[in-house]
Amino acid sequence: MGRFCVLPPNSVVKTPEDVERMLLDIENHWSPAIDTETTGTDRTKDYAVLISISTGSNRYTIFPQVFDLVKPYIEHPLRKWRFWNAPFDIAMLRNIGINIDRHTAHDVYHAHDGMVMHHLEDDTKPHSLKFAAKQILGIEMKEFMDVFGDQIRAGRSNEEIFLDPANEEMVTMYAGLDAYTTYWCTAHLIRSLKSAEIPGPYKTLWEYYEENQLPLIRVLYEAEKIGIKIDTHVLQSMGPEFDKKLAVLDKWFVKETGNPAFNVSSTKHLSEHLFGRLGYKPVKLTPGGAPSTDVTTLTVYAGNGCEFSKKVLEYRHIEKQLGTYVIGLLKLATKEGRIHTSFKMSVARTGRLSSSNPNLQNQILDIRLAYVADEGMVLTAWDYDQLEMRVTAHFSGDPKMAEAIATGKDLHTFTAAMMFGVPYDEIMTARAREEEVAEAKRKGREYTPLTERELHCLFCRKSAKAINFGLLYGMGPSKLARTLGIPVDEAKKLIKLYFKTFPGVEEHFRREIARAKKEGAVYTILGRRRRLPRVWSRFSGDVAQAERQVKNTPIQGSAADIVACAMIQLYESKIIRKYGARIVLQVHDEIVLLVPEAAEKSKEFNDEIRRIMENPLPKEVKFRVKLTTSGKYGENWKQCK
After folding, report:
1. Which of 315, 304, 254 is nearest to 279 (CA)?
2. Who contacts 311 (Cβ-Cβ below 8 Å, separation ≥6)?
3. What is residue 361's DSSP assignment?
């Protein structure tokens, strides 16, 4: 298809005769594109008002009065649909009683997602349909508010606008174009992915998409549909605790500043105290030219011992917890008392999943108390043990790191022992003592304080952990110094010591950077590609940033590949299905399932989860170290930690 084209006319489908004419045209097409115009964007309560279908040479916009007549066509088990943001449209269709999976087997995947394809093809670009249509087809599509904004501002609902006969021509042109561009954008992307050769077990990105991403689309939209029960009483009981903490801090600020009307949310008040009374020099300026009091600035001051900055950061953190995790979750809970997050496969450039409404990646431990199992069920959370470190060991082939994993050692403690010459068992004993002291403090019991030697052991492990994770994320000496509260020169020495301890890791990073400079991209263990054109930049800052991403992406992305493979196999497992277990959440390296109580004691069930999660990769991939996982059960998510 050329970049510029004449669009086919849009056909309105309102009567049985219209449906008959449409089906004569499209019934033998097995991979059409579909799109919905909806009452809103809430997947739990909004629904499709119009359905648009295109097979590339046509545009049909279907109205509600004939939805029942087109339902058999849409639900045909052999039809492979092309969506743009599949989970959204599938939810909108389900909410009007149309289910594309109604007649398909559990492990049949026929919801293709152009947004996911576009992210695989070029992760550096935006992935909206409007962007892709202009980029690929040369078609400029108008935004919804540009077309219907006046009517929305006049107080009309989406449904009123879409079904108003006076709007019919404008509405059907808008709706039909979405399906048409989805068809041709996905056609282009399929060709592009099929021609993109990659290293690993799959020959092309299309094979990677079909084997990994296409099944994951269904796994995730099924998890979204199920959701997870939320205990609103637990959330409501947490609110006063956060309020108390904020009140204590408010009193501290009044005493510290001498201003009874001090408002920690006031930039003016913060600036007067920080730069006036305390005399700190601005780290940076706002666009308006005023000294900045953002998180980065306050973190610098706090790292230099500024108690006022520490308290401001603490206040903001608590305030965010209250707004995000208490008030925010209460707003998101449905009338049935469930949370239905939206998983996103096309946001993180590493391939990691993200989520919204709520963002599961940032749920604090205490809030997990509010995520509960349904009656007669329990939650079980299975987490990989130090997955990113094991991926690093695989790629680097470092013998010391591999030995630590093979002998079941804690990698951060092992790293500390190797770097600082402190006995491994002594550090582990100090960790146990730290947990004892923390438990005693929580329960108000007497305890023996940690000794200087124990504190030294713990600092060694903290340093090793910061380096282990920091280097994987491209952390430099300055950031490491701030993290550990040590001089930059000392941080540089620690990084050199780390690479001396694990030379295989440094060599792996060198190889990846050399490859990226040759190809302009890096790859995960299964061949997922991330483009990094800045590695060729003339600007040293761009190159440095790209090199940090070169180090991080294969590790983060390979961890994502492993988790995705495990989720797909858990979803497909006949044993897991036999017990009625369902995936409900995925966070970092953790998979959470909702299971009947009887499954907890079943050796067959638990062995199946462990077998899948510890051997998730295709047999062609020879992973150099052992993957291990552990699971816990509980009435709420926190008990599973």
Report:
1. 304
2. 249, 252, 253, 256
3. G
In this predicted structure, the answer to whether residue 149 has a pLDDT above a threshold of 90 is yes
Q: Are 408 and 627 in contact (CB under 8 A)?
A: no
Q: Could you give the CA distance from residue 325 to residue 226 in angstroms, rounded to a whole number?
A: 21
Contact between residue 302 and residue 316 where contact means Cβ atoms under 8 Å apart: no
**Per-residue confidence (pLDDT) for residue 5, from 0 to 100:** 55
Percent of residues in the chain assigned helix, strand, coil, to nearest 5: 55, 10, 30
Alpha-carbon Rg for the chain, nearest whole angstrom, is: 28
Angle (nearest 5°) at CA 190 between 185 and 194: 150
Q: Report pLDDT digits (tens) over 498-548.
A: 999 999 999 999 999 999 999 999 999 999 999 999 999 999 999 999 999
Q: Are 184 and 309 in contact (CB under 8 A)?
A: no
Q: CB of 368 within 8 A of CB of 234? A: no
Distance CA 231, CA 339 (A): 10
In whole angstroms, what is the distance from residue 121 CA to residue 114 CA? 10
β-strands 521-523, 377-384 pairing = unpaired
Q: How far apart are the first and last CA of the chain?
A: 53
pLDDT at 485 over 50: yes
SS3 assignment, position 630: strand
For the residues 246-257, what does the mean pLDDT come to? Answer: 95
Of 385, 412, 404, nearest to 468 (Cα)?
412
Residue 4 pLDDT: 44
CA distance 560 to 384: 12
Q: How far is CA 622 from the centre of its chain?
A: 27
Q: How many CB atoms lie within 10 A of CB 522?
A: 24
Query: What pLDDT, in 10s, does the model give residues 310-360?
Result: 999 999 999 988 998 899 999 999 999 999 999 999 999 999 999 999 998
Q: Is residue 212 within 8 Å of 571, Cβ to Cβ? A: no
Q: Which of 411, 368, 406, 356 is nearest to 386 (CA)?
A: 411
Q: Which two tokens stand for residue 363?
A: 């749920």
Q: Give the global pTM.
A: 0.92
Beta bridge partners of 13: 62
Residue 613's nearest CA partner among 603, 602, 624, 628 is: 628
Distance between CA atoms of residues 292 and 286, nearest Å:
5
**pLDDT for position 35:** 98
CA atoms within 13 A on the CB side of 512: 28
Residue type, 201: P
> Is the pLDDT at 2 greater than 70, yes or no?
no
Rounded to whole angstroms, how far apart are CA atoms 530 and 350? 7
The rounded distance, in Å, linking the Cα atoms of 468 and 497 is 12
Burial of residue 618, with CB atoms counted within 10 A of its CB: 0-12 exposed, 13-18 middle, 19 or more buried: middle
Say which amino acid occupies 639.
Answer: Q
Q: Are 35 and 186 in contact (CB under 8 A)?
A: no
Strands 338-339 and 228-230: antiparallel
SS3 of residue 15 by DSSP? coil
Question: What are the C-alpha distances in Å from 281 to residues 253, 263, 295?
Answer: 21, 21, 15
DSSP 3-state assignment of 270? helix
| CA–CA–CA angle 119, 122, 123 (5° rounding) | 60
pLDDT on residue 3: 41
Residue with tokens 């190797």: 418
Which residues make beta-bridge pairs with 342? 356
